[in-house]
Write a structure and sequence with these properties.
The chain has about 425 residues and is an alpha+beta fold. The chain is about 50% helix and about 20% strand.
Length: about 425
């Protein structure tokens, strides 16, 4: 059985509130009216039955007050009283003690409530007669005539007053919601001036925060794209100049080709890092992180960059607990490690030492990529993680992307000079998770 793909129908909150609140109110009014009506009918029925029993009297004649009275013999023949009232048909069922029996009968075309009982015949010694008293059945339902005047009047007035209150409350709620909608539509939302429902304030604040973050992100992307286009334009212009020089024969091919290769490599590195930044934004928006083994991720990065390590004859060391993990994204963690490791390889002199260390202490997990390079200049440190702030031989995006990847995985990243005996002997790039998984 296939389900319908139609979207759910939008429901008006105002109509919903009016229907449910007014419907519930009038349902309560109807229940109260029905309850009082039933009680009134029961009381009228009991009162009528009591009148009929009293009307039979203790003597052989019906008492005063019954509308219709009849006295008859045991065989049903009328002795006195109303000619149209039918005789009691179940004489044998009447108690000899004279207790009355209540029943429903007819008087012509009119339904009546009647009472019958055996009495001593005052004219015949020892004889018995059947005495009857009756009233129309409509007397039992006189509450129908009195209810609109006695009960339904004030119930309807109260319900109308409460309905007016409900309608006013719903209208006020609609105005509050309209204020909230206008506040969301405003380009700048000042929560201090928000005068809508307090229950909506957290949602409004959250929406304001999301809008603010969206505007900031768009502005960051705009600036980044402007910088990126400028940075990419530079190597392309250089490459064009080099090609023109080679075509004109101004520079020997053996001299210009390595320069062109370097320019192409520089542009390729920047394009790859821009692609990494695009992937990073996807990870941030997806927000799906998982436990990742840091040692295994480091092994993958080292295997990929092993040719570069071998080309410079570097002494590499990978240390730490193989089962130590942290929360992250496997692909972006690999990108982070490759960037840091490539940066360490670039700055370590030929035949030098570098490595990766995975360690944990207290509630902290650290991933350290260290090298034996010259260290970070203090003048460069303030803009070390700024985009397009390149050190010698770089494109200025690697460390910026690394820090953004770390923050997207709930970690922090810092660069420290490693000092021994007052002399800088290398750099430690430390990615730190404050909570172990």
């Amino acid at each position: 059985m296939m389900r319908s793909s139609r979207p759910p129908r939008a429901v008006s909150l105002r109509r919903f509130l009016l229907l449910w609140l007014l419907g519930g109110l009038w349902l309560v009014v109807a229940c109260i009216a029905a309850f009082h009506l039933v009680v009134a009918l029961i009381e009228l029925a009991r009162a009528q039955d009591a009148r009929l029993v009293a009307a039979l009297g203790a003597s052989g004649q019906p008492g005063v007050g019954a509308v219709f009275e009849r006295t008859g013999s045991l065989d049903g023949s009328r002795i006195a009283g109303d000619r149209m009232l039918e005789a009691f048909p179940w004489v044998a069922s009447l108690p000899a003690s004279g207790a009355p029996r209540l029943y429903v009968s007819q008087r012509g075309d009119v339904a009546v409530r009647a009472a019958a009982a055996l009495r001593e015949d005052a004219t015949q010694s020892g004889g018995k007669v059947v005495v009857q008293a009756a009233e129309p059945m409509r007397a039992r339902f006189a509450a129908w005539d009195r209810m609109p005047r006695q009960l339904l009047g004030w119930l309807a007035a109260a319900a109308l007053g409460m309905s007016a209150v409900v309608v006013s409350a719903v209208a006020m709620t609609s105005r509050w919601l309209a204020r909230a909608r206008r506040a969301l539509d405003a380009p700048q939302l000042d929560m201090a001036l928000y005068d809508g429902p307090s229950e909506l304030r957290p949602a409004m604040a959250r929406m304001h925060e999301l809008h603010q973050r969206q505007r900031e992100w768009v502005e960051q992307q705009r600036r980044f794209l402007a910088d990126a286009s400028h940075q990419l334009r530079t190597p392309m212009s250089v490459l064009r100049t080099q090609l023109q020089s080679a075509m004109a024969g101004d520079v020997p091919a053996g001299e210009i080709l390595p320069q062109m290769l370097h320019t192409v490599d520089r542009a390729t590195d920047m394009a790859n890092q821009l692609l990494s930044l695009s992937k990073l934004e996807q990870v941030k928006r997806a927000g799906r992180l998982q436990a990742v083994l840091l040692h295994a991720a480091a092994v993958d990065a080292v295997m990929e960059l092993a040719p570069l390590i071998a080309a410079k004859r570097l002494d590499f060391a990978l240390e730490g607990d193989e089962q130590l993990g942290a929360t992250g994204d496997p692909l972006m963690l690999g990108e982070l490690l490759r960037n840091l490791l490539a940066n360490a390889i670039h700055h370590t002199p030929d035949g030098g030492r570098l490595g990766i260390l995975v360690r944990a202490y207290a509630a902290t997990v650290e991933l350290v990529v260290w090298d034996g390079g010259p260290g970070v200049d203090d003048a460069l440190r303030p803009r070390l993680f700024q985009a397009f702030s390149a050190t010698k031989g770089g494109v200025g995006l690697g460390l910026s992307i690394c820090r953004q990847i770390a923050e997207a995985m709930g970690a922090s990243m810092e660069i420290y000079n490693r000092v021994d005996a007052g002399r800088v002997i290398g750099v430690d790039a430390v990615v730190r998770w404050s909570q172990a998984p």
